[in-house]
């Protein structure tokens, strides 16, 4: 009986402190996961927008000779805004294809 009284007296812990001790590591891992998912979503959105802008620059150029340099110029402007770490992490390649040649024909599909 003395042991039970001693154990009851010795366990005067706070429920809030115990909750924080046990749940804080899980919330931290969850926060890191959410941050990584958000970073990936932003990168995908940026790449879709960049591809759209490069194709738009290609299609709206006044001649076929200027089309590819204009699309590359869009990529160069984007690369100039990135940090060195982002340049290494996300290499950018341009590949524009036309359904029919010449590319600047009516009804042609450019991707």
Q: Structural class given helices, strands, pairing?
A: mainly alpha
Strand content: under 5%
Unreliable stretches, pLDDT < 50, 5 or more residues? none
How far apart are the termini?
81 Å
Share of helix among residues?
over 70%
Cα shape: rod-shaped
Output mean pLDDT: 84
Order of helices and strands: HHHH
Radius of gyration: 29 Å
Based on DSSP secondary structure assignment, what is the total number of beta strands? Answer: 0
Q: How many structural domains does the protein architecture include?
A: 1
List the total number of helices. 4
Largest β sheet strand count, sense and barrel closure? none
Structure description:
With 111 residues, the chain is mainly alpha-helical. The protein has one domain. The chain has four helices and no strands. The chain has helices at 2-10, 15-59, 64-81, 84-89. The protein is rod-shaped. The mean pLDDT is 84.
Topology:
Elements: H1 2-10, H2 15-59, H3 64-81, H4 84-89
Helix pairs in contact: 2-3
Any descriptors?
single chain, 111 residues, mainly alpha, 4 helices
Please sum up the structure shown:
This protein is mainly alpha-helical. It is 70% helix and 0% strand.
């Amino acid at each position: 009986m003395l042991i039970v009284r001693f154990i009851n007296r010795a366990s005067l812990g706070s429920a809030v402190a115990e909750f924080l001790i046990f749940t804080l590591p899980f919330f931290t891992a969850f926060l890191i996961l959410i941050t990584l998912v958000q970073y990936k979503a932003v990168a995908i959105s940026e790449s879709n927008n960049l591809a759209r802008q490069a194709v738009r620059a290609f299609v709206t150029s006044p001649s076929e000779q200027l089309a590819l340099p204009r699309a590359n110029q869009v990529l160069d402007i984007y690369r100039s805004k990135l940090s060195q770490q982002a340049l290494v992490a996300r290499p950018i390649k341009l590949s524009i294809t036309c359904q029919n040649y010449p590319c600047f024909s009516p009804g042609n599909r450019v991707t």
